[in-house]
Structures are given as C-alpha cells and as structure tokens.
Specification:
two-stranded parallel ribbon; D-Maltodextrin-Binding Protein, domain 2; 15 helices; alpha+beta; 6-stranded antiparallel β-sheet; globular; 316 residues
Amino acid sequence: MKKLSFLMGGTAMALAGPAMAADIVIGVPNWPSVNATAHIMKVAIEQNLGLDVELQNGTNPIVFEAMDSGAMHVHPEVWLPNQQNLHDTYVKDKGTVVMNPHGVESFQGMCVDQGTADEHGITSIDQLTDPDVASIFDSDGDGQGELWIGAPGWASTNVEKVRAKSYGYDQTFELTEIDETVAYANLDNAIKAGEPWAGFCYTPHYVFALHDMQVLEEPAYDGEKWHVLQPTDDPDWLAKSEAGMAWDKAYLHVHFAKELEDAYPEVARLLGNMELTTDQVSEMTYALVIDGKEPQAYAEQWVADHEDAVLTWMTE
C-alpha cells in the first residue's frame, strides 16, 4: 500500500518527542460493525501516520465522556438519533467532540422470521398486541411471548421499551435484553428448528443476507409525535416517553475528540473525511461474524483493497 510519507514531514515529525508516547485511543461499543470500523481506523492510522492506536471497549456514554476528558479520542459509529442526547451534550453544548458529516444510512425496526410470518400471517407490529399472536412466541409457557429488544446498554434498547409501551405489546410479550451475538444465535437455531422468533433488527447488518426476515409494518415516523427520553435525561424517562410509530431513518457517524485537530491534524482529517456505504458495513459484519475472520487481519486486507479511498480520506 502507498504510504503517505509526505504527511510525516510536518506535524508528525514535530511530535517526535514525548508527545509520540500518547496513543490514539478508539472506543469500541458492543456490536459487530463498530468492531470492524474501529480496526479499519486503527490500521489506516498506524500504517500511514506511524502512530500507536489502542482499542478499548466501552458503552456509548463512557466513550463520549472519555472523548470529552481526553482519555479516548474516537467513537467509530454513533447512531443518530439513538445517541442524540450524547451528541447534543458533547458536540453542540460542550464543543469537545466533532462529528464526521458522512453518515451511513441505516434502518431499525421489529422483525419476525419469514417462515413464522408466512405461516401465521404476521405482517404488522400491531399484531403483537394480540394474545393469540404472542402465544406463538411463548416458549416457556408463562403466557407471554419472548421478544428481543436489543442488548443491554444500547440506546435503541431503551427506545424499544418506549415503543413496546406505546403500542401495548409490553403487556403481551416479555421484553428480553441479551447480547446481540446470543440473540442472533437464537434466531439461527430457531429457523433451523422451524420455531418462531421475533425481535429487533437493523441495517447495516449481516442478518438480512443470512436469513429471510419479515420487517413488521408500522405507521410512518412523525417527528411531532415522537417523544423519546433516555435514562440520562430523566429518571421517569419511560413514563414520559411515547413513540407508537416507525423509527425515523437513522445514520451512523464517526465522532472524534476536537483536541485531535490540534494534536494530530492528519488523524482528524482522516476521521473527518472517512466515508462508508451501508453495503460496505453490512459486508464487514458478515465477514467478522459469519465468516469468522479475525478483525485485525480483515482490517489490514480491507485497507489494502481500498487504498484509493483511504488516500482520499487523508488528503481531502
């Protein structure tokens, strides 16, 4: 791969003293695509700018707080509007975090496996409030179906609690929070066994390439009627929230600490220009989760295969 050695003659050379000991720290929350993009950033920065990059696990609030304090420098994949409260606090109010403007378009909603949808005629989210429909998904005989609403710590998981309350299927389903890897393993096992599955689904993601899924129909998003708070906004967030409609279209944005613009401007330029497509991110999740590729090796190959794109991010 062509290295941007000409960039090293300026700021990077000036940082050849003690400042070079400072790593670029990338926060990595718990979903597949963010793991892929974090490793791609790591490889691109290390190969082209000669800096040491460390990846650290962390929830969305922890990564934002760390970018604000300087303990971390990058969040590779901020979902908006999911993390709108964090974005508003640190980008708009404090001004300590910068958002890359190139969002990756995404979708969020509720799905059932296609076989169950076809067998029982399930096409609409309103049907989840029907006890007879819910009983189809009742695997433990407690009178409620099981519905995966997301992983613990996801902002979307809280939103799905609001949506379940707003539609009323929180009364007919047990709302399950488990790690995504486990949830989609359960989906895979259910489909192989011919058993029903219902839960949160989103793109970019490998699940739609792996399985036939029925996205449940919903009333269109209406910004005037979408009132969603997060636990960090109000202790009584769930009772005060209402969202009986489809999600708005979402976008995934790189966010990074503003201090990088002065400390490592070449890194800030790369992070500010990085641009991916929905299909590319879906392919990344498939490679890591389904094909089982090791993230570092996959990222090295991806950066080599997309040399022109990486060079563009660094020189625009």
